[in-house]
Amino acid sequence: MTDMTTTTVAKAAPVLTATGVTMRFGGLTAVRSVDLDVHPGEIVGLIGPNGAGKTTFFNCLTGLYVPTEGRVAYRGTVLPPKPHLVTQAGIARTFQNIRLFANMTVLENVLVGRHTRTKEGLWSALLRGPGFKRAEAASKARAMELLEFTGLAAKADHLSRNLPYGEQRKLEIARALASDPGLLLLDEPTAGMNPQETRATEELVFAIRDTGTAVLVIEHDMRFIFNLCDRVAVLVQGEKLVEGSSDVVQSDERVIAAYLGTPFEGAPGAEEAAAVEAAEDQAAGRATHARTEDGQ
Ligand SMILES: Nc1ncnc2c1ncn2[C@@H]1O[C@H](COP(=O)(O)OP(=O)(O)O)[C@@H](O)[C@H]1O
Ligand SMILES: [Mg+2]
After folding, report:
1. What pLDDT band is residue 266 in, cutting at 50, 70 and 90?
2. How many A from CA of 232 to the centre of ligand 1?
3. Nearest CA to ligand 1 atom 2
4. What spans are recorded as compositionally biased (Low complexity) (predicted)?
5. Could you tell me the distance, in angstroms and rounded to a whole number, from the CA of residue 58 to the centre of ligand 2?
6. The listed CATH number (2.30.30.30, 3.30.1780.10, 2.40.30.10, 3.40.50.300) that belongs to domain 6-90+181-262
7. pLDDT tens profile 30-57
8. Which of 106, 115, 160, 235 has its CA 20 to 30 A from that of 8?
């Protein structure tokens, strides 16, 4: 359903509930106590300057990292931090850097993404019995459907490494969709794309949402994010600074400051910055004072 009102979206039980997610690497806290919900039918954006912890947060959601603290639940069930179990539960993702099987065809890449949803085991595959053949045919049909959906059907038999960059990104999305996810995580899906490809990706994300898959997307392109998302969360230095509708986030002076690099009151790290500034002022004051004394 495309025309879901905000009220229905807000009332539905969330597909994703991240609670107090913290990720530390030695002394560095990359993600600090982040809460985030995604509801069915929603497209939620995650933005923030480089190094803010966005990818690390995705890695915590998908079981690639075991968060130092906090928990991640899919449709109310806490997820074990194991990537294949997270995919099986219903969360799929694409990566910031394209990860395709370069020497496989476009269709084969999607079939790889399909394997979590096929029940046929190893022996069945080796013996190529009737069960396997049926499952294989069904998988192929579903993979072709997804290639139609993403506009890649004509290139099903091409090697993925021969696709232009924009189509490789699309193929990554098709492969992620092959696991029939309830939630799709996209990490910078338009990175390196020209405006036309970005526009096409926007349409694709809307279409995915319309099929009933909620989307959480990291992106640097602000126009893309604010146009696409029902809600946007801003990460700065690992902390969620602001969350709200595109309009609210877009006009929040703290967000503008975070992107322009101006310190603002209450910013993570602002205390330290203020202390440094005060010390510098004091030193400068002493220097001026010393010069005045010299001059006398
Ligand atoms: N595996 C890791 N080990 C140590 N530090 C990491 C690791 N992954 C990310 N970081 C650090 O965590 C911080 C956040 O990085 P990242 O999540 O990639 O940011 P973003 O995606 O917002 O640009 C950075 O300081 C980065 O260097
Ligand atoms: Mg990143």
Report:
1. low
2. 21
3. 25
4. 270-287
5. 9
6. 3.40.50.300
7. 999 999 999 999 999 999 999 999 999 9
8. 235
108-146: pLDDT as tens digits: 999 988 877 666 655 665 666 777 778 788 889 999 999
State pLDDT tens for residues 140-193: 999 999 999 999 999 999 999 999 999 999 999 999 999 999 999 999 999 888
Q: CA separation (Å) from 244 to 10, 46, 208, 247?
A: 12, 11, 22, 8
Domain with CATH 3.40.50.300 in the chain: 6-90+181-262
Question: 47 CB under 6 A from ligand 1?
Answer: no
For residue 196, how far is its CA from the centre of ligand 1 (angstroms)? 30
Q: Output the six-digit token pair for 20.
A: 């107090």
56 Cβ closer than 6 Å to some ligand 1 atom: yes
Report CA(51)–ligand 1 centroid distance (Å): 6
Q: Spell out which residues have Cβ within 5 A of ligand 2, the ion.
A: 54-55, 96
Residue 23 CA, closest ligand 1 atom number: 12
